[in-house]
Amino acid sequence: MTGFPPRSPGSGLELGSGEIHVWAIPLDPPPERVESLGRALSADEWERARRFRFDKHRRQYVVGRGALRTLLAAYLGTRPEAVGFSYGPRGKPFLAPPFADRGLQFNLSNSDELALAGFVHGREIGVDVEFLRPMNDCEEIAERFFSESERRVLRTIPFPAKQEAFFNCWTRKEAYLKAVGEGLAAPLDSFDVTLALGEPPRMLTLNGDAGRAAPWFFHHLRPAEEYVGAIAIEGGTWEVRTWELIP
Ligand SMILES: CC(C)(COP(=O)(O)OP(=O)(O)OC[C@H]1O[C@@H](n2cnc3c(N)ncnc32)[C@H](O)[C@@H]1OP(=O)(O)O)[C@@H](O)C(=O)NCCC(=O)NCCS
């Protein structure tokens, strides 16, 4: 389904100190796979799963959470059901004891039928993926969410490239917000990112300051033709390795 090479976590995974691992997770696997992934979920995750109104959204949540547990367990050398989560003030999940002090950080994002999960040691990471749906009104949406300079750049880009540039901007902003754990509590116009097609992903200013933006590391992801993604981490140089999760 994706262009990332398939890989099974097998009996364990190793994450090097300068590496970021990104896994693409197709959210519509065969029913028996949905069932086996679902067996790893905790009682509170099942409670949340049951609250989804539509089966499709329940299935996507169960597969995403089950796959996240499978991958975390492979990095930690434990069983998926033994992984526990704690949550930041705005809902960002972290590893709970006894694995909280292992330094393994992660973040998950999903859109339509694909999730991306990112893993790194020692730094908080933010991940976002978006399905490239048609966006005829992207300039109007940008009025609400993008900074003035991002809107100015978007206006100069002709259709259809404009829609992809919109999602470049969206995923980079969201990846940063998820790295710092703020979600939409942070003002979306307090920082500017690049968005033009082919331009390297980076943050241009943070609170009007280019010096504060410069250390932020961004990586652009194209897991499949119809999906665009981004990861964000503060500081460091990284080798990003990508796979599609297979059983
Ligand atoms: C909650 C939020 C962090 C991400 O929401 P989202 O884009 O709808 O969803 P994503 O699929 O990318 O991420 C959801 C996952 O991120 C994680 N997450 C939840 N809260 C988080 C937070 N505060 N910080 C980081 N990660 C978070 C969880 O793993 C969650 O998965 P789950 O729902 O299966 O538990 C928040 O930024 C939000 O509500 N965004 C809305 C989108 C928007 O308007 N963005 C403007 C960008 S220009």
What brief labels describe this structure?
247 residues; alpha+beta; Ribosomal Protein L22, Chain A; 2 domains; three-stranded antiparallel beta sheet; 7 helices; binds coenzyme A
How would you explain this protein's 3D organization?
This protein is of the alpha+beta class and 247 residues long. Helix content is 32%, strand content 28%. The longest helix is centred in the N-terminal third of the chain and has 22 residues, at 55-76. The relative contact order is 0.19. It binds coenzyme A. Coenzyme A binds at residues 61, 64-65, 90-93, 107-110, 128, 145, 170, 173-174, 177-178, 181, 183-184, 188. Coenzyme A is lined by residues 61, 64-65, 90-93, 107-110, 128, 145, 170, 173-174, 177-178, 181, 183-184, 188.
Quote the CATH topology of the largest domain. Answer: Ribosomal Protein L22, Chain A
Q: How would a textbook summarize the main sheet?
A: 5 strands, mixed
Stretches with pLDDT under 50, minimum 5 residues: none
Order of strands side by side in the largest beta sheet?
1-12-2-6-5
Shape: globular
Q: Which CATH class of the largest domain applies here?
A: Alpha Beta
The CATH homologous superfamily of the largest domain is called 4'-phosphopantetheinyl transferase domain
For the record, give the distance between the C-alpha atoms at the N and C termini, rounded to a whole number: 14 Å
Total DSSP helices: 7
Percentage of residues assigned to helices: 25-40%
Total separate domains:
2
Global Rg: 18 Å
